[in-house]
Amino acid sequence: IPVFILAGILVHCVFLVSIFDIYFSSPLVHGMTPQQTPLPPPAKRLVLFVADGLRADSLYELDSNGTPRAPYLRSILENNGSWGISHTRVPTESRPGHVALIAGFYEDVSAVAKGWKENPVEFDSVFNESKYTWSWGSPDILPMFAKGATGDHVYTFCYAAESEDFGAQDAAKLDIWVFDRVKSFFNSSRSNQTLFSALNEEKVVLFLHLLGIDTNGHAHRPNSREYQENIKQVDEGVKEIASLIDNFYGNDGKTAFILTSDHGMTDWGSHGAGHPSETLTPLIVWGAGVNYPQKVTSQFFEDNFLKEWKLENLKRLDVNQADIAPLMASLIGVPFPLNSVGTLPLEYLNSSALFKAESMFTNAVQILEQFKVKMSQKKETTLTFLFTPFKPLSASEQINFLKKIRLYIQQQKYDEAVSLCKTLISLALEGLSYYHTYDRLFLGLSIAVGFVGWTTYVILVIVKAHTNLTKTVPTNKKKSAVIFYGFAAAGMIIAFFLLIQTRPWTYYIYCLLPVPVWYAVVKEIPIIQDLATNVLSLHIGQSVGFLLVCILGVEILVFSFFYRSALTVGLLVFAGWPAITQLWIQAKTKAMIWTLLCVLLAIFPLMPVVGREPNIPLVIAAGLLTLLISFFSLASLCKSENKYRDNEDLKVYFYQVSCYFSVILN
What we know:
Radius of gyration: 32 Å
CATH class of the domain at 44-343: Alpha Beta
Mean pLDDT: 88
Oligomer: single chain
Strand order of the largest sheet: 4-3-5-1-6-7-2-8
Transmembrane segments: 6-24, 441-462, 482-499, 505-522, 543-563, 569-585, 592-610, 616-637
Protein name: GPI ethanolamine phosphate transferase 1
Domain GPI ethanolamine phosphate transferase 1 C-terminal: 430-662
GO molecular function: mannose-ethanolamine phosphotransferase activity
Organism: Rhadina sibilatrix
């Protein structure tokens, strides 16, 4: 038994780790050549404001009296710039959001093991490609971009981590700290010639991370006065900083401004999932190289936000969050981040058709470079006769695409060139996904075979140890040896197959795990034969009925992943179970208690997943009630016949109650 338990723990650990290897491996590749638009950029510098935790509707909607919540930003999108919604991805957390914004790719999930704060894999970013970047804000966000940068040109100014108090009465002070430090920075540069010269260079980025809105949202909820007042303070701060920077540079018209958010927030003050309130964030862009507001008579979106926000006549330009990185790179003329998967949103640019076509071509080549490296890596670790390339982007097709696009640009057919670039980007992204998930089916099948084998073995052990459905059969040593050598040979073939393809060591574990598991199953063939004989001897109606009940139970469990109310159906079925058995007659009191508790438990899946306010008394009351019922049941068992007092089940029950009690205390 101890060996069986140890083997079970080991097998399940492998199954757990395999999830990350199969579904959440890093999408990043390295070794690409930087790609930069060959034409002069429209802006010399870029100012990026990221209002952490700011929802799109919270910024764009009007107050009850019809006045804008952020007057300055409202005037910008109506008179000076372009606007839209930036669509984020799950997980809607601060680090993944900032990586998508500034590096152009969606976060490597392995970062969750480090609290989304450290760099599990080095990556390129707009900050890294800039001549200089100065940033102000949270110590949880800024250091990761400085750490990943090459050279000493990304500077960070952070407040103390202790300042991020989610229980504070007013967290807007975090944003005020940022605005004040930026003002002091520019004032001090006038007496610091080195700093003054650096600020007047091209390809400069200024990044203001504003955490106050997110902190107030967690503490007071997005519909609170504190959250909405914080938006007004950010609006005023952005206005002051924009005016300060324009004056500092003599209103040279070479500064581009972007305001957006890393993620939104639910009505109850949380984020991380995929609700629209979490994934829809604002995007306002203005300044050098940016289109002015575009008047339209009608535009269609599936949501009704335009009417609610009174913005029906201003063209809304939605983007994916990763698209903002190539937009920033294009505006200031730096190479696109090497790992970016964003597509340049051309409608935000106010530049020549040639510049747009060249920028789009650069974007396409940059993503194609990733595709080529990914394909090369996969080809090196796969036997030639087994390798299946991504056919829509074969080597010849790549050359044809690049030649046609370059020819269109030379012939000044810019619209055709842009259209072909978008097609190439779409295919390259599809190919990246194809090679990233190339081994998923192979590994998934290996794990599935191992899981089915382990489940079968557990069933056989239970049947053998706790039923009388089988009979003891003497071991045939010769037959056992044949089985052993057969599985050993299969294991060696699998290991050799992986070795010649230079696969990672984890692949050996996933692919070889089914071998010993199924060997253990096959050794119990006599038990399988006895079990099959007993099942076939049952009445056909009983067998079919039992099978249907099992299938229904499994389906309800699967359905509950998508619709929680399915659990209610299952619990109500459990509640009625004593009524169709002899339990209702033999133990009526216990059957009634069972039914009552099942009905009470069936209510919970129908309740909201997350409430607006924590209900600590309800949690404590539920825990105490569970303990009370547990102690009552334990006392009943102890007072029953002597045969129960030394029963192993009684000991296990006691240990379970003790563990639950320790959890309640914690």
